[in-house]
Amino acid sequence: QQPVQSPQAVILREGEDAVINCSSSKALYSVHWYRQKHGEAPVFLMILLKGGEQKGHEKISASFNEKKQQSSLYLTASQLSYSGTYFCGTENQGGKLIFGQGTELSVKP
Amino acid sequence: DAGVIQSPRHEVTEMGQEVTLRCKPISGHDYLFWYRQTMMRGLELLIYFNNNVPIDDSGMPEDRFSAKMPNASFSTLKIQPSEPRDSAVYFCASSRWTVRETQYFGPGTRLLVL
Q1: CB within 8 Å: A43 and B42
Q2: Which residue of B has its CA nearest to A101?
């Protein structure tokens, strides 16, 4: 079942922060985050495994709460290059990734 | 490494024609995935292979779609006959050892069926 992402879209000014949420109705084994720029392929950001870990990648970090079956992606001090569509991919018992509908992030100067 | 290679990058065809999309995964990667992306349905997993063997094809929309992986360095996704609703971007991705690894996406094939 497809995870639900929120918000669907967000507009930021450079330097502002944003949080993107990903929720699943099923138990999660891992959560993957990807970013896709217009006309390009999705690019991997990070994977979070079962265990409630938090990871960081430059000014982008994420958390995974397996009890709540949720993950959140945190973007701090956003840069123009952060613009794009962010997808979470959730791994359920089936062992395959199901991607959410995406969150479109626009960072303005 | 060259990354995942897909061909063609763009395909325009007429309804009823056969379409074949090609993918070369990253060398040494055991998993290969085919995805379809549309505005309406987002990024959908169609099928994935492990060591050239199809593991899960539950995302293949119907019998008009078929996928093969004859060897570790080549896979095809075929649509026969094609329909306008098949218009989408088709991505191939590969990962090293498990589904839980980073998936590296190819540039995609933009398919337009008239």
Answers
A1: no
A2: B42
